[in-house]
Amino acid sequence: MQSWISCILWLLFTWVWVKALKSFSRGSIKLPPGPTPWPIIGNLPQLGHKPHKSLADLAKVHGPIMSLKIGQVTTVVISSASMAKQVLQDHDAALCNRNVPDSVSSHQKGEYGIPWLPASTQWKKLRKICNLHIFTSQKLDANQDLRRKKIQQLVAFVQESCHAGEAIDIGQAAFDTAVNLLSNTIFSVDLADPNSASAREFKNLMWGLMVESGKPNVSDFFPMLRKLDIQGVRRRLSRHHIKILEVLDRFIYQRLKQRQEHGFVGSKDMLDTLLNISESEKIDRNDFKHLFLDLFAAGAETTSSTLEWALTELVHSPEALSKARSELEKQIGKGNPMEESDIARLPYLQAVVKETLRLHPAVPLLIPRKASVDVQISGFIVPKGAQVLVNAWAIGRDASTWENPYSFKPERFLGLDVDVKGRNFELIPFGAGRRICPGLPLAIRMLHLMLGSLIKSFDWKLESKVTTENMDMEEKFGITLQKAQPLRVVPVAI
């Protein structure tokens, strides 16, 4: 055991020495300011359990563009809207590639997944398919009936708890609904059905995938240790990937068989759409599987955590909850279910979602970028190979941009021409530039529809002994920005 540890330490010191020589040879490069790193471990101790918050605090000292060492990885952190514009728009081409985590490389995930592919021909092909064939308004309008049924089931589920006077774990209910909204949009089936063994298996696999992906991995901080997979993260994630891809492959195989049957009637879901264009667009089953995996991994947890935060903030601010419900009743009418087409005429509900995304972006540190060449920003150099982190959490709470930045005030967005589509860099929960989240159009529909339906159908009260003054509002950093304590609230008939 001691010889094994000695070997690792020797490799680590060798790596540090080589990096030090390289740094010396590039000593003329003017890096952004930042905290002094410790030998070997860099600035890791300063990140803590909430790195988005720690980095925001460091930015107040060192500025909106700063450099630090996360282990042995040179990292540039962006913490203001103006600096984000330079990274995500002005220098997008040079900074659009990804710094791929070791966990993502399991089972060739980095080779296929849209979020992690370099800006290559394959990536452009898959983005084109998303933009032209999957997430257009026309396509989403055509398959919205698949999602409507899932919202009705969510309301019916909550109604049962309402009659029983029982509290609901909002995050769990939202996650199940988000999985079913996605699986019906993709396959026209439920994948969060408690009565189905295969559905339970898929949901558990997806949950395990996200839990493992959210764990800090020493291999990401010390790249020379990647092959060793010291924590076993890559090994465990590889098992999850293999099993999930097998489940997805079964759905594709079943649909291919159905399409060969006499009298087959096509669906409006994503799978049929992709099969219809597969020959002309030169995409295959591997592309399908990894695209669907990306949608589930990126969509289910981000949507459910954002909805949980939105309802948390509304319960914490009863006046805002009342305003949102009044708007829904006025525009849609009592007893009428909310439809996706209603979203455009619900400005206060839109403001609630924007304010939630400002305070609680699901991915507080946008997916890491990587400099393909040396890039000059505001007189500083982002060196080739450096990791670039955009702190969307810090930007959303920047006092120079937002009045009372830590307060939940949806009214700030009424009459303000700011959206989350990557055009306004003070609000970029989905990113911006060519790497903006391709599923944004679907995510926005799902968020508004779920939240609006829950607000319109029920009032909400906290469990006994919990008040708006003492309710937990703490965050937990992981693959998404979750509540430290799940929101449990009691639905009340209205």
Topology, number of strands: 12
CATH superfamily caption = Cytochrome P450
CATH class: Mainly Alpha
SSE pattern, N- to C-terminal: HHEEHEHHHHEHHHHHHHHEEEEHHEEEE
Structural category: alpha+beta
Number of domains: 1
Strand content: 5-15%
Number of helices: 17
Principal-axis shape equals globular
The Rg value, from CA coordinates, equals 23 Å
Give the fraction of residues assigned to helices: 40-55%
Point out poorly predicted stretches.
none
* Distance between the ends: 65 Å
Q: What is the arithmetic mean of pLDDT?
A: 90
Biggest sheet layout: 5 strands, mixed
CATH topology: Cytochrome p450
- Side by side, the strands of the main sheet go 1-2-8-5-3
Quick recap of the structure?
It contains 17 helices and 12 strands. The protein is globular, with a radius of gyration of 23 Å. Helices cover 51% and strands 9% of the residues.
